[in-house]
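#onboarding

Welcome to the new folks! Below is a worked example of what a typical request in this channel looks like: someone posts a single protein sequence, and someone else replies with the predicted structure as tokens. Don't worry about understanding the tokens yet, we'll cover that in week two.

Example request:
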Amino acid sequence: MESVINTLIPFALAAVLLTLMAGIYTLFKGGDVSRSYSNKLMRLRVLLQFIAVMLMMAGLWFAS
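Example response:
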């Protein structure tokens, strides 16, 4: 179980990074794109961060 979680952690962190970059891009682009997607992307980022933190905590739990 520990190896599965340890392989999922980098994917979760990459998903957070990509979502953050997309959210910042839409924020600076402005206009209709920003109004439609910026808030949704930032909410998705918060959800993905929660998942990444839970995976890291589970990895620490199983490692000990």
